[in-house]
């Protein structure tokens, strides 16, 4: 496989996890973008409870028995532990059996080949080649026309949106080749004046030329020459690139919204942000410039440090120590640290080897996932509450929002705000092993909290019923 090839980002979504082309990129392509730091903490953290990534990997078999083994087989692997080691960068020389772009795209597509109705994998069918893809969405598969007819009442409600999912899944490769996002401009409005992605796109100079350069670029041509699917119309590709741009920029802009909401002044002193529970989602193939949109939001700031902290952070360019002194003005310094957050606090913050945070952010902590995950988060939640650290969590949907609000309220945490995030990703994400569930959107909702609650009253959650439609 050519060195300049890259992976898809299989995000930490319900029952989703990183996949095979990410491995291929780490093995062969990552060095073409930047060199990897060898710096690591002196000791590897001990994980004593389940984490979202391993739970997501295991969950696929509950919907499609045997699917996790298909994924491992496509990577020439035998176990999740081997998979996890490769994700952590411990097996960079491993042969994943991917030699060409066509191999890469085909192996990825093979992991989606199961009947959406009866859940059978190709090997369980008399003829493994009998699976047929829905012509409309180019996403879900059926083993025969009977299964397709039986599934249609459910699938027809989501078919159009799942077409967007399938398209974005392919075009997302251009994030890792560096084509997406396009170079962005300094914000011409203050953050409280920018209400939506429409406002954000309107501030981008020469937007049409930048988008067209992506559509006509080398990697877009390579993509459609190798995926085995018809190339969509230019308008569809344009909208896909825009959705993927929002997906990339959603995290730094959401951090910017939190800094503004908590009244943190970036023009009087440098600011430190800790991203907790970070994993491959935030750190795999992450470049040191990936959060530079914060400088576009706050031009002339005194310096912003963003530290990714988590037991599943991946070795790479941002695996470098947090700052002990303030970094350069007007720039974002991005680093990561492999540790549980309470351990990081004790070993780094309390010893002044890392700055105390002005803001802590958790992207999709998954407090609702299961008791083990919640218990794993408890020491961190209590630390943030007791030290009165301004904190923001993001969530996928209203159900997760309600559940997380209940947990934080029971911990007597002061909730200062919650609701729909105006800068949620516009890229729909399907539930990997259950494609006919409604897609979700990254950072669709947020919760802000700060210290100990002054009153035990629960926030009013009565207005959150109903489903928000983000359009097609």
Question: What's this, in brief?
Answer:
Helices cover 37% and strands 11% of the residues. It is of the alpha/beta class and 472 residues long.
Reading the helices and strands in chain order gives: HHHHHEEHHHHHHHEHHEEHEHEHEE
Query: Globular, elongated, flat, extended or rod-shaped: what is the shape?
Result: globular
CATH architecture of the domain at 247-464: 3-Layer(aba) Sandwich
* End-to-end C-alpha gap: 35 Å
- Assigned CATH class of the domain at 247-464: Alpha Beta
- Helix fraction? 25-40%
Main-sheet strand order equals 5-4-3-6-7-9-8
The total count of helices amounts to 17
Rounded Rg: 22 Å
Assembly level: single chain
Task: Kindly name the structural category.
Answer: alpha/beta
Can you tell me the residue ranges where pLDDT is under 50 for at least 5 consecutive residues? 1-21, 23-50, 461-472
Number of strands: 9
Strand content: 5-15%
